[in-house]
Amino acid sequence: MTNASAKKILTDLFACAVETADPMQRIAHALPSKPQGRVVVVGAGKASARMAEAVEGIWGPCKGLVITRYGYTRPCQGIEIVEAAHPVPDQNGADATRRMLEILRKLGPDDFVLALISGGGSALLTDPAGSITNAEKQQINTDLLASGAPIGQMNIVRKHLSRVKGGQLAAVAHPARMLALMISDVPGDAPASIASGPTVGDASTAQDAVEILQNFAIEIPASIKVALAAKTGVLRPDAPELSKVENVIIAAPSQSLAAAARLAQGDGFKVRILGDAIEGEARDLGQSQARIALEIQRDMSAKDMPVLLLSGGECTVTRRGNGCGGPNAEYTLAAALALNAADNIFVLACDTDGVDGAAEVAGAFAGPDTLQKAKDLGLEARSFLDKNDSHSFFEKLADQIITGPTLTNVNDFRAILIYPNA
Fold this sequence. Notes:
Blueprint: H1 3-20, H2 23-30, E1 39-44, H3 48-59, E2 63-69, E3 80-84, H4 91-105, E4 112-118, H5 121-124, H6 134-147, H7 151-160, H8 168-173, E5 177-183, H9 206-215, H10 222-229, E6 245-251, H11 253-266, E7 270-281, H12 282-298, E8 307-316, H13 327-339, E9 345-351, E10 363-366, H14 370-376, H15 381-386, H16 390-396, E11 400-401, E12 412-418
Parallel strand pairs: 1-2, 1-4, 2-3, 4-5, 5-6, 7-8
Antiparallel strand pairs: 8-12, 9-10, 9-12, 10-11
């Protein structure tokens, strides 16, 4: 099997996973008939503009406001689409969030809200609590992203520093009825974790947020200490303000992995799904899954079917250097080093939103010749991993996977293709 052939197989499987999570398909299966009376559509996330486009394709023009990442806008007939920054919030996101809250405050018990929520919404939907400034909120987000904290813990902090997360968006719309359609990008698909749960209550406390910041040695500005010491705005799951809210997940990582598995099985591969909610350090996971691949290959005979290992979830990177990298590229580089040029094993890891870390790169591909190609170019692969500079490494090898905006987000897609040695 050549590198080019294996790369095409794996990129086709990734494309299948992304297509399965396309909001244009998923909305059609989940959207009810348009209610009578006043209907408002709001939303936030990397997939939210595509979701809004899909809604209007079924319901026709609607009133509302949706916030998405720069470059992820879609044409809508009535819903206003605002672009803002991700993963670190900016003023565009803050201004649009305040306008969204003003729209919701005007609603009554006979009105209906359709909320379109997807991954990325936590940064895009931003209204800092207390006297926290946008600059302070940005710094905390930057520090969290560099700390290696799991996404669930990051979201606890974000909720308690916000006036909109942890059910607070839905509470503003109360007593209007609300249906929240969600695309999950979090391990375990907990609605309270998707975009930090703007329509979902949470049992965590402000003290939990303080302990997370302390555990990851993140400096806490005075205004944030004050906000976390005050009464939290996050609602409990059984809060009466959430009694008229229905939360429905319409796309999840498990669905995309299952679709890719079916495609691979149809092409003659034996598929093992290692899990759709795997977390941890990207480099550690790359090494451990590479070892699994080597063990599988050692037990294969020359006549065995090739094996495909699939996994999803959300890895983290603890920043050790100042390079340009993301969890999927770092996973791939660590796996390549652990495989040590083993014949007939190929690796691809990409984020289904098309953005790995903060780079406009989905991920990377590695094969048996990756380390030799690097050596021929005078590159020492281990030093790139040590500096968290995996994107630079794969850019020099022309093995980055670049998709542009995919308009969806169901987390990471990782695949290892294993052929028997002759």
